Amino acid sequence: MKNKNPIFYLILLLVLTLNSCKEKDEYHSVIEKIKAEQKPYHGKLTSETLLAGTDLIEITEGEHTFLIPERKGQIKSFACTECHNSSLSQMKSLVGKKAHWEIQLYHAPDYIMNCATCHNGEDMNSLNSLTGQSINLDLSYKVCAQCHSSQFEDWKGGAHGKKLAGWTPPRASMTCVNCHDPHKPSFDTRWPSNFNIKKALERKEGLDH
Ligand code: HEC
Ligand code: HEC
Ligand code: HEC
Ligand code: HEC
Hints:
Helices cover 34% and strands 9% of the residues. It is of the alpha+beta class.
C-alpha cells in the first residue's frame, strides 16, 4: 500500500519547502509583522490599581506635581503631644533618659545637628525648619531639602528615589524617609549579591603564597 517511489518523496519535499517559504515571506520583517498583527489598545494604562489602599498626598514642587505617601499614620509615637504637653526642659530628667532610647543620631556632627535642628520643642507634632518654622511631618522632604538640595532637585525630577507603583500616571514617588532613616540616613556598605566566595578564597590563596 505504501508508496515507495523516491520521486513521491521528492515532490512532497518540494511542496513542503515551497509552503514554508510562502509562510516566511508573508512578512518581510519583524516590524512589518508587528505592524500588521497589532491590535489597537483602547484602554488607559494607569498605576491607580497598584496604588489602591496607600494613603497619598499631592505635592507641587516647582513644575512637578506628584503624590507621596503620608507619614503620620506610620509613626509609632504620633501624636507626640500625647506626652509632649510641657516644655522639653521640664520633661527631661536629670537622671538618665525616660523615652526614645531606640533613637540615636548618626547623621552629622553635633556642631551641625541635634534633635532640635528638626524637632520643635514648642510644637512637637511638626518638624522644624532651620529658621524655626513648622513643617508638616508628612512633608519631611522639605526638612531634608534645606541641606541636601542637589538630591532634592534630582528627586523632584524622579532621578533620585523610586516610584511607588508603575511608571504610568498618576506619578507616586517614595519620600526621603521611606528609604533614609532621618536619624541614621546612610546605608551600610554591602557585598554585591552575587559575591563569589570560591573566587575570593582562590584569590586570597593566591595572595597568601
Ligand atoms: C510616650 C511619651 C512620648 C511620646 C509619645 C513622644 N515623646 Fe518625645 N520625649 C518623651 C520624654 C519623656 C522625653 C524626655 C526624654 C528624656 O528624659 O531623655 C522626650 C524627649 C524628646 C526629645 C528631646 C530628646 C533630647 O535628648 O533632647 C525629642 C526631640 C522628642 N522627644 C521628640 C518626639 C517626637 C518627634 C515625638 C512624636 C513623633 C515624640 N517625641 C513622642 C516622651 C514622649
Ligand atoms: C535631620 C532631622 C532630624 C533630626 C536631627 C532628628 N529627627 Fe527625629 N525625626 C525626623 C523625621 C523627618 C521624623 C519622621 C520620620 C518618618 O516620617 O517616619 C522623625 C521622627 C522622630 C520620632 C518618631 C519616630 C517613631 O517611630 O516613633 C521621634 C521620637 C524622634 N524623631 C525623636 C528624635 C530625637 C530624640 C532626636 C535627637 C536624638 C531626633 N529625633 C533628631 C527628623 C529628625
Ligand atoms: C541641617 C542640615 C541637614 C539636614 C536638615 C539634613 N541633613 Fe542629611 N546630612 C547633613 C550633613 C552635614 C551630613 C554629613 C555629610 C557627610 O558626612 O559628608 C548629612 C548626611 C546625610 C546622608 C549620608 C550621606 C552619605 O554620603 O552617606 C544622607 C543619606 C542624608 N544626610 C539624608 C538626609 C535626609 C533624608 C534628611 C531629612 C530627613 C536630611 N539628611 C536632613 C546635613 C543635613
Ligand atoms: C527609593 C529610596 C530613596 C529615596 C526615596 C531617597 N533616597 Fe537618597 N539615596 C538612596 C540610595 C540607595 C542612595 C545611595 C546610597 C549609597 O550609595 O550608599 C542614596 C543616597 C543619598 C545621599 C548621599 C549622597 C548621594 O547622592 O549618594 C543623600 C544626601 C540622599 N540620598 C538624600 C536624599 C533626600 C534628601 C531624599 C528626598 C528628597 C532622598 N534621598 C530620597 C535611596 C533613596
